[in-house]
Amino acid sequence: MIPEGELLRSRVVSELSDSLEGALDRRLDGYAVLAPRDAILFDADGVGVITFEAGVPSMAYHTETDRGGPAALADIGAGPYRLELHELDADALDLPGRTDALDVPPGMPADRLAGDAALAERTRRIAADDADADDGEPDAIVEFLDDEAAIERIRSDARQQAAARADEWGFEDAI
Amino acid sequence: MVEAFAVASGKGGTGKTTSTLALGMALAEEYDVTVVDADTGMANLLFHTGLGDADTTLHDVLLEGGAPIEAATYERFGMSVVPCGTSLAAFEAADPERLRTVVAELASTTDVLLLDSPATLGSKSAVLPIVLADRVVVVLQPTIPALSDGLKVQEYALSYGSEIAGTLFNRVRGDVGDVTAKADRYFEGPLLGTIPESEAAGAARAAGEPLLAHAPDSPAAAAYREAAGVLDPRTGDADAVADRFRSAVIPEPP
Ligand SMILES: Nc1ncnc2c1ncn2[C@@H]1O[C@H](COP(=O)(O)OP(=O)(O)OP(=O)(O)O)[C@@H](O)[C@H]1O
Ligand SMILES: [Mg+2]
Known about the structure:
The complex is a heterodimer of chains A (about 180) and B (about 250). Chain A contains six helices and six strands; from the N terminus they run E-H-E-E-E-E-H-E-H-H-H-H.
């Protein structure tokens, strides 16, 4: 269904919050493959696939039940999982046969699979910002760069975050 | 020691590892260069350098009472390469703080240190390379998430007393002069280069070689050599620099 990406990590996880948050933080373009931990062959009982665009979940599919979207999330069910995270060019995720039936709302994997309402909310916010910015088109990028107020907001938010975390991380002497 | 650079981007997959090795090889013509995979949670420099089966890696050095840094240093492609392993258990056992000592030790034996950095600002270990570096090379792509995350990386670096060496636009298709000119207003340091989208990059990765070794005549390799020329590492006193890393994160705020 999806061209093969570059394997970033493969591990057993009991819960998905960290992995979903990691994908969001690194603005991953790619996909996660999820199997029950006990699966001996990676796809004996089928696997769930969740794709990410700039870190935001966009599609879900389950190979055994052949269902997509929210239904696929239900088929993936609860952990522990064997998880593989793959990176893939954003272009390659623009699948030719892509149908809306595979789409998942941005926050739903965090809600349903990780039970992490805060992460779901953060994901929805970032997704909304991205949608506003409609990425990829050169015009959209230039427009983004022309919005000095928005850029300044990104920068000052980051400065505040960096300062707040300096305490937490023991970097006080750096600032 | 001349200088420590972090090669960083907020977004994943922008080409940090490719760029670290390309800049490293180009600088190695003139300097004694060490590249370190400081992306200890999602290491992949080893696969770009044919070190996938290295016995000892940075993970072993970051353990308490772990291996000496020499044991995890490999001479490859005219550089000293310190790869990191990919096991989750090793990552969790490693003490990220020890990267400080590693950098201090390497600082006394090499001219230019390049730290391939993680694609997130979400944890202390992910941000440490940016804090430890003198200057940060910000790797961008002409996309909104990459630009906005690049801005965040810059603000973190400046907040923690590191300077910006410049920006590198990677995977560029066609003319992005508009974008680089406008981005230049917000980023410190010069535009080091625009690296074209190149099939040679993927082929090099598949062959386990840096781009400059695999396809030295490709336009992308030429663009990296030019970028390295703009970097212009600063000469400094080796002992003073090593002391600096050992004693504090950044000694004297400007
Ligand atoms: N100029 C380029 N043209 C085409 N492909 C490229 C180019 N630079 C890098 N790539 C490819 O993009 C992918 C990501 O590159 P790389 O691993 O260097 O990025 P990274 O920022 O280190 O990623 P990560 O965030 O996962 O550490 C690789 O498959 C690499 O071969
Ligand atoms: Mg990398």
